[in-house]
Design brief:
The protein has about 240 residues and is α/β, with parallel strands linked by helices. The protein has one domain: TIM Barrel. The protein is built from eight helices and nine strands.
Length: about 240
């Protein structure tokens, strides 16, 4: 499995607070079947923090070395969780963003938690700049209507849902929306969004797999993430339900 959204790099944002914590998080990921991860430190003016690109790259290399010392076989790839705000457009103009895997035009983007007046227009503006968008945890934005998400998907935005949503980690509403988005074919990637060594990951994997099947899990947590890293087009990233029961 390839986890495209996790906060594994220590001391950069609201994720791992120390190298030891990051190592334990890596162990948890490996235990549930993850062989590659693209740690996604927060980038922008959102509440999660704003990790500097050089610092993130250096920290990733330090963690890679520590994992090798500990005998933890987890590949680490470049990534960032880009907070959608005016600062993001400034950084895009300077080339100061981190595509999925470190190359290409796919960006993991996070909408503000407070209501955004017209998310479609803002995301379309990013697309007009040549970027392809993987939208983080749409089930958790209280103001993002289902019809809006459906239009975004039709326009090439791909979605990443949280594994924890299927067991209520983010509340009943997020769980219901994750089920609905998944069942209606509007979900493409699943990821952990891990911030600390959580014990619920194994259960979340089981619940997801029971609902959608092993093939859907593989499509959402392995095949589609690999395709995104490989610069596939949006049309080449199907909803994970297409691989389900």
């Amino acid at each position: 499995m390839l986890d495209l959204h996790c906060h594994l790099l220590p001391g950069l944002d609201d994720g791992a607070t120390s190298m030891d914590t990051a190592v334990e998080m890596a162990r948890v990921l490996v235990e549930v079947g993850v062989v590659s991860a693209a740690p996604s430190p927060h980038l922008g003016s959102g509440p999660g923090g704003d990790a500097g690109l050089p610092q993130a790259a250096a920290t990733r290399e330090l963690l890679r070395g520590r994992l090798q010392e500990e005998g933890i076989d987890l590949e680490l790839l470049p990534n960032a969780e880009h907070h959608v705000c005016p600062l993001l457009f400034e950084r895009i103009a300077k080339g100061a963003v981190v595509p999925l895997g470190g190359e290409g035009k796919w960006l993991l983007v996070e909408l503000p938690w407070a209501p955004l007046a017209n998310p479609e227009a803002v995301l379309f503006r990013l697309q007009t700049l040549g970027y392809r968008l993987l939208l983080a945890h749409p089930e958790r934005y209280s103001y993002l209507e289902e019809a809006t998400l459906e239009r975004l998907v039709e326009r090439g935005v791909r979605t990443q849902l949280e594994l924890g949503s299927w067991i209520g980690v983010y509340g009943r509403r997020a769980r219901a929306r994750a089920c609905r988005f998944g069942d209606r074919g509007m979900a493409h990637v699943v990821a952990t969004d891990l911030h600390r060594p959580e014990e619920w990951l194994g259960k979340a994997r089981q619940v997801f797999e029971k609902r959608y099947g092993a093939t859907a899990l593989k499509l959402g947590w392995s095949i589609n993430p690999r395709r995104l890293i490989g610069q596939a087009t949006p049309d080449e990233i199907p909803c994970f339900l297409e691989g389900g029961n």
